[in-house]
Amino acid sequence: MRRRQVLIGVGAAVAVGGLAGSLRDESETTNLEGDAPTLAAAGSPETICAAEPEVDPGIYAIDEPAFGTDWKGHAVGDRYANDGRMGENWTVIGIERDGDARAYPVPVLWYHEIVNDEFGGPVLITYCQICRSGLVARRQVDGSPTRFEVSGQLWEPPREYTSASVARDRVRGVAERGGESVRIFNSGNLVLLDRTTGSFWSQLLARAICGPASGDRLSIVPTTIATWGEWRTEHPGGEVLLPPPHSGTVE
Question: Which of 32, 124, 153, 246 could form a disulfide with 191 if both were Cys (CB 3.0 to 4.6 A apart)?
Answer without folding.
Answer: 153
